[in-house]
From TrEMBL:
This is ABC-type dipeptide transporter. GO terms for cellular component: plasma membrane. It comes from Litchfieldella anticariensis (strain DSM 16096 / CECT 5854 / CIP 108499 / LMG 22089 / FP35). Its EC number is 7.4.2.9. It is an enzyme of class 7 (translocase). Gene3D superfamilies: P-loop containing nucleotide triphosphate hydrolases. The lineage of its organism: Bacteria, Pseudomonadati, Pseudomonadota, Gammaproteobacteria, Oceanospirillales. GO terms for biological process: peptide transport; transmembrane transport. PANTHER family: DIPEPTIDE TRANSPORT ATP-BINDING PROTEIN DPPD (PTHR43297:SF2), OLIGOPEPTIDE TRANSPORT ATP-BINDING PROTEIN APPD (PTHR43297).
Length: 340
């Protein structure tokens, strides 16, 4: 059994004009010590999926259906008091902007000690010793001095290391990192991701990395999910998806990387934009932007326009695409003809 199992997760927001489904039948799992990437454009549902795991969705959002099982325990429906034993304790989260996460009027040490004492019965002295050790683990220079400093006195990269140290305070089983390097420059991004990877491997901590950066995903994660308009549309081993993307949307993301463009010419891009979740196209949500919506005869596939695609197995990956399903059926038909 996997450490984390998410099945058919359905998240909605109750708005005046009606309910909007932010996540539709999202399913994935995470083993102990495994690293999983979740990628997609802004609005795909990546952060909502992450926040749902700890029921951190702000009102009017709510989990409408599905299951989230952590270490055999069902998390959906748990009271806030019961969830406190999981949040920050066994599952920690690293948010995008450390300045929005850290309290500006408390010193780093006060915040770390407060977090420890909220979950463990330990003395102030013991808590401070643990906080100091965690700062040393994340390679903070002069950690004794940093404990007594305030967030505004630290650089962006230093603040992000502090956030990672806080996430590791209670020795969690899983860390959820929601675009942890967005506000940092490229060199600091690489340092932070290398540090996070090293710590996860050293302590056998599972990692869920939410990002739009396929380069980071390819270097850090072992498996990945590609999301579009609130659904998972492709999932499987990271290396296989990066080397041979099956879904047209994943192919578009790969082709949009700067290194895929011809020097001196415009960068490749996926035409159009992510649809509004309150007004999704019929059938496959990606079909208005898809370059493969037409069949071999140049006619639009009715299935693409009318039916939400089911998952099909392609190698070690699962893909929700009518075109891929047709190609696999054709391959199977030809294989049968050759053997008959």
């Amino acid at each position: 059994m996997s450490l984390l199992e998410v099945s058919d997760l359905d998240v909605r927001f109750a708005l005046r004009q009606g309910e909007v489904r932010a996540l539709r039948n999202v399913s994935f799992s995470l083993d102990r010590g495994e690293r999983l990437g979740i990628v997609g454009e802004s609005g795909a549902g990546k952060s909502v999926a992450a926040f749902s795991l700890l029921n951190l969705i702000a009102s009017p959002g709510f989990i409408a259906g599905g299951s989230i099982r952590f270490d055999g325990q069902e998390l959906t429906g748990l009271s806030d008091r019961a969830l406190r034993k999981v949040r920050g304790n066994r599952i920690s989260m690293i948010f995008q902007d450390p300045m929005m996460t850290l309290n500006p009027v408390l010193s780093i040490g006060e915040q770390m000690i407060e977090c420890l004492k909220a979950h463990r019965r330990i003395s102030h002295r013991e808590a401070r010793a643990i906080a100091l050790h965690k700062l040393q683990q994340v390679q903070i220079p002069s950690p004794e001095t940093r404990l007594d400093q305030y967030p505004h006195e630290l650089s962006g990269g230093m603040r992000q290391r502090i956030i990672i140290a806080i996430a590791l305070l209670l020795d969690p089983d899983i860390i959820i990192a929601d675009e942890p390097t967005t506000a940092l420059d490229v060199t600091i991004q690489a340092e932070i991701m290398a540090l996070l990877l090293e710590l996860c491997e050293k302590h056998n901590v599972g990692l869920i990395l939410i990002t739009h950066d396929l380069g980071v995903v390819s270097q850090v994660t072992q498996r990945m999910l590609v999301m579009y308009a609130g659904r998972v549309i492709e999932q499987g081993p990271t290396r296989e998806i990066i080397n041979d993307p099956q879904h047209p949307y994943t192919q578009g993301l790969m082709n949009a990387l700067p290194q895929m463009a011809t020097p001196g010419e415009r960068l490749n891009q996926i035409p159009g934009s992510m649809p509004s979740l309150s007004n999704l196209p019929s059938g496959c949500a990606f079909h208005p932007r898809c370059g493969f919506v037409n069949d071999a005869n140049g006619q639009p596939r009715r299935a693409c326009l009318e039916q939400v695609p089911d998952f099909v197995d392609s190698g070690n990956c699962r893909v929700a695409c009518h075109m891929v399903a047709e190609m696999l059926e054709e391959e199977q038909r030809l294989a049968k003809e050759e053997t008959s």
